[in-house]
Specification:
Structural class: alpha+beta
Strand order of the largest sheet: 1-2-3-4-5
Radius of gyration: 15 Å
Number of strands: 5
Order of helices and strands: HEEEHEHE
Amino acid sequence: MKDIRRDLGLAGEDTAAAVVDEAGLTVLGRNWRDGRRGEIDLIAADPASGTIVVIEVKTRVGNRLGSALEAVDSRKLRRLRGLGGAWLRATGTRARARVDAIAITVPDRASARRAVADRMTDLRECGARIDWVEGLS
């Protein structure tokens, strides 16, 4: 499974970007880094509320290791809040921000292998479940 993790993760980020776009948000950036402090998977603007949304994307195969959302713990949230503030300062954006998580669960290894082999950019095509939690605290 190790050899396909990176490709599956990239497909998960593509899927999350599509879900965010379909929800009416505007993707402003992907994989934004603040040096060694970390990376924001997706940054979006919510035009309905004027809020900047910092999105952590987690892609997992099955639930054997627990839910993908369980990987977004309090330490990760603190880091994401800090990175969101750094992005706002770096871009000169004056807006409220929130942290969301999008968990993508691919049903099984066979589906994950097929998704990578077929170079899927939307994992919903292989039966992935999408869970989007807004405003993590």
